[in-house]
């Protein structure tokens, strides 16, 4: 891997299987409108925002057809390598080794950012239950198995924790969200790093598997005593309580736009790849598990119309599209990152 880091729409936004809308490219002086079709797949993390962008873009560009399937970062990257999509979504960018497999080259463009949260389903337990770094890694290691464990209780005085088994929910598919979470776990827990490690797909010590952010969210909702990891917008849209996590400074931080933005301030995107991560932010007000998410395009497109349409959509998404990011629970790109993305998108060859 390269170097390290309320939503007011219809419930139909989640789960997202695919979005197909007619979007477009035509000359203002031409009587004949040429439809351009784009196919994309990948990360479920940004899928609700991509759906919104596609719908909004359609209002002003009604003659481009875009289909984005929420299948996980691993699937998106592989389909880009195989040449079966026009673009991909990934929460982990793309590695040098993967780019080397793509004859047409690839460009990674950060489009938005958000947090990975630990959501839970425990009767009569309020939102923002405090979980220390040791506690939440030990839960996913299978070492803390009951909600009334003294180590959970010590950080939450006054809360009556139930005598209820903990049910860990995790991803079964190759997932950028999993990679972000496990990189963080590996950074804060030597035991996790040595026994489990980090990656898009790992051998989980305990838990029930589900596919996509959509599947994990649904499994948490259905399972009393559950705790699992999902992108922020999936938890908030489905009204799941989320934990306040202890950060490196020892503060318990609730995932908010402000705490996520604090984390992003420490992420410096290199100009050559625009890919960077921060596994364990040090700022006192930083939420500890945050990532950008990337749109992966080819560098070269045989069809000039597709190249121009991809470039147009990216430029729209990082400007006009950013206005809806915060509304849906994502973090708008900073002006500096917007400038970097627009500059990188100019390298898409027509």
TrEMBL record:
- Signal peptide location: 1-30
Q: Pfam families given for it?
A: PBP_like_2
What Gene3D superfamilies is this protein classified in? Periplasmic binding protein-like II
Question: Is Transport given among the entry's keywords?
Answer: yes
> What are the UniProt keywords, alphabetically?
Phosphate transport, Signal, Transport
Decide whether keyword Zinc is in the record: no
Which SUPFAM superfamilies would you find in this protein's record?
Answer: Periplasmic binding protein-like II
Q: Tell me which residues make up the PBP domain.
A: 33-319
Give the family from UniProt.
Belongs to the PstS family.
The molecule here is called Phosphate-binding protein
Gene for this chain: pstS
């Amino acid at each position: 891997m390269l170097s390290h880091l309320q939503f007011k729409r219809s419930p139909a936004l989640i789960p997202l299987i695919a979005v197909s809308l007619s979007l477009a490219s035509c000359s203002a002086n031409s009587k004949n409108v040429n439809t351009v079709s784009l196919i994309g797949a990948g990360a479920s993390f940004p899928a609700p925002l991509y759906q919104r962008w596609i719908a909004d873009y359609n209002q002003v560009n009604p003659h481009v057809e875009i289909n984005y399937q929420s299948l996980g970062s691993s699937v998106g990257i592989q389909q880009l390598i195989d040449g079966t999509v026009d673009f991909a979504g990934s929460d982990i960018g793309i590695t040098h080794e993967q780019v080397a497999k793509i004859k047409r080259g690839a460009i990674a463009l950060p489009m938005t950012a958000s947090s990975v949260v630990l959501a839970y389903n425990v009767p009569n337990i309020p939102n923002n239950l405090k979980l220390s770094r040791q506690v939440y890694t030990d839960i996913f290691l299978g070492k803390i198995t009951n909600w009334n464990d003294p180590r959970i209780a010590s950080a939450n005085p006054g809360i009556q924790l139930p005598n209820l088994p903990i049910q860990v929910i995790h991803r079964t598919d190759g997932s950028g969200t999993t990679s972000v979470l496990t990189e963080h776990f590996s950074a804060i827990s030597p035991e996790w790093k040595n026994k489990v490690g980090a990656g898009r797909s790992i051998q989980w010590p305990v838990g029930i598997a589900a596919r996509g952010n959509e599947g994990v969210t649904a499994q948490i909702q259905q399972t009393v005593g559950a705790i699992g990891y999902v992108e922020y917008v999936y938890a908030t849209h489905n009204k799941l309580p989320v934990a306040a996590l202890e950060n490196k400074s020892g503060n318990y931080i609730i995932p908010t736009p402000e705490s996520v933005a604090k984390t992003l301030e420490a992420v410096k995107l290199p100009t050559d790849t625009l890919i960077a991560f921060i596994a364990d932010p040090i700022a006192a007000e930083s939420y500890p598990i945050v990532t950008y998410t990337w749109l992966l395009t080819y560098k070269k497109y045989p069809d000039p119309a597709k190249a121009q349409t991809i470039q147009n959509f990216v430029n729209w998404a990082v400007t006009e599209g950013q206005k809806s990011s915060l509304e849906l629970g994502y973090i708008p790109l900073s002006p500096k990152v917007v400038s970097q993305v627009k500059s990188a998108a100019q390298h898409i060859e027509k």
